[in-house]
Amino acid sequence: MKSKWLHSTIVLLLMAGTLHAKEFSVRDFGAVSDTTVLSTAAIQNAIDACSREGGTVLFPAGNWLSGTLILKSRVTLRLEKGATLWGSRKLEDYLPNIPQYVALRTRGKTKQLIFAENASQIAILGEGTINGQGAFFADKTAKGVQYDRPHLIQMIHCSDIRIENVSLTNSGCWMEHYLACDRLQIKGIKVFNHCNKNNDGIDLDGCHQVTVSDAIIDSDDDALCIKSTSDRSSEDIVVSNCVLSSHCNAFKLGTETNGGFRNIVAGNLVVRPSLYTGKVIYGHETGSSAIALEMVDGGTLDGVAIANVKVEGTNTPIFIRLGNRARPFRDNQVITQVGRLSNVTLDNIQVTGARNLGCSITGIPDHPVENIRLSNIDICFDGGGTREDALRTVDEMEKEYPEAEMFGRLPAYGFFVRHARNVSFSHVRVHTQNGDLRPAFALSDARSTSLLALDLESTAGSDCNILSEKCEELMISGSKISGSSNTFLKLQGDANKKIALMANWLSNATKVADIGKSDKKEVSLSGNIH
Fold first, then answer.
1. Residue 86 in contact with residue 131, Cβ under 8 Å?
2. What 3-state DSSP class applies to 119?
3. Beta pairing, strands 415-432 & 485-492
4. What is the mean pLDDT of the chain?
5. What pLDDT does residue 108 have?
């Protein structure tokens, strides 16, 4: 009984911070607070000494200049308030590491300010700043898979990691890349990354059991990106209470998707325009997309839930894409299978200031996206689409790089859905600041689709509110339109089957439905108020 009491007491003391690990001040190892003096060796000596006993490497208030630092097991880097770790401006001060773990971006030499591989119980904490001075490195991309510009932080095959409260800025490439890591906690950090190409905020790559919370990220490239650049999936990841700004994608799964994604939950997010006023390197000033879910390299995306998102200004609020780029991550590898994208839930999303491209949910022929549920969504678009836009034929582009703007201006101002199964929209409102002559929804090769309690806006002169082509088992119920409409539902071609239009408020529509060449026996209209 006494030993149990003693063990519990020790655990409580550790949790309360009463028992402190040993501190190793970089100053005691010869580091100099001077941005003209390189202190790499002194700081590394402090890390090495700390690793032997376990403890904290302390950066006191001041300015510390360094090249590559190798973080080791049982080491915490703590930056006090007023402390800044500066990355060297000289490329020769960064070690050309060749990681042991094989992935798309580790096939060649990589460079980092802070690097760790096969380490555990590591952390970067404190109220200080790490500045990579990334603007001083020219882009030297080689074959699109390796960079001569240093990442700020790269951790590979590590476990039990904490990154808390620090400010991170100006990386030469990605700000933070966590590859094949387990039990990672990122909390309360601030990221500002607008000085070079590939300036992502956070990249989680094939990691398991991850939480990201209370982060503020403002980046030129993707803000918070979950990837899979090897055959290891990214799974069991929770993102919450974050403010995301990006000239590209705010919250993204992709582009690299070899291993796939499982059990990803994101909630309580604000997506807003970047505060950066300089030149946009990639993307657009307002951002390419707020939410981008992509599967293009043969993996599986299964079980993604996103809720409670407020978006202000973006080109494409929602982009869901199954493609077949099939890019390998190993030399001489050939990917023959098409991936899968299924079981996605989006709920309670409010968007203002969206541009006029529209949102898309698309698979490719014979490989549909499946089980996609969208509810309680309100999106206000700029509008301005024309009748010519409404008549556009959208190329499949199944081998192309997936990006929210890849299809151009879509034939629907709200949602374009193609090659899909079991997609449902419930309590979704789409409207425009200016008139738009495209339908709100355009569906093609969509099976088992339900449109429930929609609130759609129509512009005089538009052909229809909902366009259906080659769809089967389509049910529209409890929906209404504002503005004048020629036809609420238009069935294009002769391949629409099992269409039900029930209990909709359509008093503003000239015509409830235009079934065209469809078999009348395949269409049921009942209880609509017109």
1. yes
2. coil
3. unpaired
4. 94
5. 85
Summarize pLDDT for 450-473 with one digit per residue, the tens.
999 999 999 999 999 999 999 999
Residue type, 357: L
pLDDT for the residue 144: 45
- CA atoms of 96 and 478, how far apart (whole Å): 61
Residue 268's identity, in one-letter code, is: N
The Cα 60–Cα 77 span in angstroms is: 11
A 10 A CB-CB count for 250 gives 32
Q: Which contacts (CB < 8 Å, 24+ apart) does range 45-48 have?
A: 47/71, 47/72, 47/75, 47/77, 48/72
- The two tokens of residue 324 are 């077949």
Tokens, residue 117:
């591989």
**C-alpha gyration radius of the chain:** 26
Residue 201 to residue 207: CA distance in whole angstroms: 16
Residue with tokens 């010869």: 30
Render pLDDT for 98-141 as a digit per residue (tens, 0 to 9).
999 999 989 888 999 999 999 999 999 999 999 999 999 987 66
Measured distance CA(67)–CA(146) in Å, rounded = 19
d(CA 272, CA 269): 10
> Which tokens is 244 given?
């995301």
Question: Is 493 in contact with 517 (CB distance < 8 Å)?
Answer: yes
Query: Are 325 and 296 contacting, i.e. CB atoms less than 8 angstroms apart?
Result: yes
| Collapsed DSSP state (helix, strand, coil) of residue 227 | strand
Report cis status (omega within 30 of 0) of the bond before 386.
Answer: no
Q: Please tell me whether residue 182 adopts helix, strand or coil conformation.
A: strand
Phi first, then psi: what are they for 528, rounded to 5°? -85, 140
Q: Collapse the DSSP code of 473 into the 3-class scheme (helix H, G, I; strand E, B; otherwise coil) and give the result.
A: strand
Spell out the residues 6+ positions from residue 75 whose beta carbon is closer than 8 angstroms to its own. Answer: 47, 50, 51, 54, 55, 56, 57, 119, 121, 122, 123
Q: Is the dihedral of CA 303, 341, 319, 280 positive or negative?
A: positive
Strands (E), 157-219: 159-164, 167-169, 176-179, 182-187, 190-193, 202-205, 208-213, 216-219
Q: Which of 157, 261, 154, 263 is nearest to 202 (CA)?
A: 154
- Mean pLDDT in residue range 386-415: 97
Phi, psi of 46 (to 5 degrees): -65, -40
For residue 445, what are the contacts with CB-CB under 8 A and spacing of at least 6? Answer: 365, 368, 418, 419, 420, 469, 470, 471
Q: CB-based contacts of 337: which residues, under 8 Å, 6+ apart?
A: 298
Task: Give the C-alpha separation, 24 to 43, whole Å.
Answer: 10
Pairing between β-strand 216-219 and β-strand 75-79 as defined by DSSP bridges: unpaired
The region that residue 118 occupies, defined by phi over 0 for left and psi between -120 and 50 for alpha, beta otherwise, is: left
